[in-house]
Amino acid sequence: MASCAALAVLWWVAAAYPVVFRAGPVDGLAVNWGTRALHPLPGEITVRLLRDNGFDKVKLFEADPNALRALGHSGIQVMVGLPNELLAGVAGSVNAAEQWVLQNVSTYISKYGVDIRSVAVGNEPFLKSYKGQFESVTLPAVQNIQAALVKAGLGRQIRVTVPLNADVYESGDGKPSSGDFRPDIQGLMVNLVRFLLDNNGILAINIYPFLSMDADPNFPKDYAFFPSPGAPPSQASVQDGNVLYTNVFDANYDTLISALEKNGLGSIPVVVGEIGWPTDGDQNANVPSAHKFNQGLFDRIVAGKGTPRRPQMPDVYVFALLDEDAKSVDPGNFERHWGVFNYDGSPKYALRLANGRPVVPAKGVRYLSKQWCVLRPEADPNDPSIGGAVQYACQYGDCTSLSPGSSCGSLDVRGNISYAFNQYFQASNQMKNACAFNNLSVITTTDPSRGTCRFGIQIDTGKHVLIGKSAAGRASAISTAVLLVVALLPLMMAAP
């Protein structure tokens, strides 16, 4: 996911990341399943969680072997992703594309019975912040993957797509009907969409009202949410001819449809690849807001209510199924908290899904022991070694919930330090020497959680390896967490 685009010109054009909408009322749903977690929920438990909650489509950002094997013979349709870092290799070699399809698509279909229906080539490759890094390789990669699927006999069974950020289009006057592709990639977008259209592909767009609101303090908050039935429209509603746009999703999606129609590409099927609301890591990321947004989203999904330009609801992949504590925090500390469910498959809030069914938790989850690592009661929080200890703990554990305005943002200094120590302790599978910290910490069986701040206990994955410098390679996805700690340390030490 990334930052929102062109807010000064187009309020509703947002950044980036999935449950699926279909035409007409639906019983099934779809969602993004990210796997960047230090203690991932076991695949078989996750698949049961999907099925128990009525999700019949899932999107994977990469061909994760554990997830794909678990999805075999599950009845769940799968979109599997080819990451951006593989685009250049696949673009430059048909053989590389064929090998990728063989290893990550054909094998899982034939050997494990995975119902793969589409391949997502790259993820938001034309994002402005990438500064053109993937612009020359995306279309060739799409062409080679399409050719590889045809050669494998899967050309009719599997459709190719490219999930794009909403910053690939814009509107000069802020009206959806004026939508067009970004000038610097106009030709590229036309060629890409034309190829997808000619080869039975689909276009995926990621829409994030949260990012639009979070990036602009003047953004009208009610316009980010779906209006309740009978509620007055937002003062920020946009009148476009005879159509009144009352929420950012409808306006954003229809801006893309206008851009496609302007370029003679209006018949391409368009799905929403990612949309959701995070619950932590930012002052605007909280449970009440996420509940409000996602309930409105699910209601639209179930009702099949589309947009003014596309009255039939497209497939919409909600972002995301689970929190991921090993994701990069480059876009923001909220990036690890998009899940409808917590890391362990427990619901964050009450949602009504298809047929009014409430969400149900994951079953059969095994946890580590009920113990936590905290600052020793007699330890001085002003000890000069505290800062380095906390920095080290948060380099390998997830401390994003300590961000200002987050669920643990109001802890006192002792609470901040204890939270950091416990995150490292849990990430290290509660190994005894993971709660050493120069004799500043102690293991306790009394839950130190307070208020909205939950001191978690990790999932027992059976892999008991201490996280530390020797594990830096395995923990590369969380290396940026230390930047958060450096920024927070002055606040933590100054807390009352």
Structural description of this entry:
This protein is of the alpha/beta class. It has two domains: 29-356, TIM Barrel, CATH 3.20.20; 372-494, no CATH class. It has 13 helices and 15 strands. The strands form five sheets. It has a five-stranded parallel beta sheet with strand order 1-2-3-4-5. Strands 6-9-12-13 form a four-stranded parallel beta sheet, with no helix packed on it. The chain has a two-stranded antiparallel ribbon with strand order 7-8. α4 (94-112) crosses α5 (138-151), α5 (138-151) packs parallel to α6 and α11 (386-396) crosses α12 (413-427). The model is unreliable at 2-24 and 469-496 (pLDDT under 50).
Structural class category: alpha/beta
Strand segment count:
15
Strands ordered across the widest β-sheet: 1-2-3-4-5
Oligomeric category: single chain
**Total number of distinct structural domains:** 2
Could you tell me the mean pLDDT? Answer: 90
Protein name: glucan endo-1,3-beta-D-glucosidase
Main location: membrane
Family: Belongs to the glycosyl hydrolase 17 family.
Domain X8: 371-455
Keywords:
disordered C terminus, five-stranded parallel β-sheet, four-stranded parallel β-sheet, TIM Barrel, 496 residues, disordered N terminus, 13 helices, 31% helix, alpha/beta, 15 strands, globular
What's the SSE blueprint?
Elements (H helix, E strand, L loop, with lengths): L28 E4 L10 H10 L2 E6 L4 H7 L5 E6 L4 H6 L1 H19 L2 E7 L16 H14 L7 E3 L1 E3 L3 E3 L7 E3 L4 H13 L4 E4 L2 H7 L5 H4 L13 E3 L2 E3 L2 H15 L7 E6 L11 H17 L12 E3 L53 E4 L10 H11 L16 H15 L13 E4 L36 H14 L2
Parallel strand pairs: 1-2, 2-3, 3-4, 4-5, 6-9, 9-12, 12-13
Antiparallel strand pairs: 7-8, 10-11, 14-15
Helix pairs in contact: 1-2, 4-5, 5-6, 11-12, 11-13, 12-13
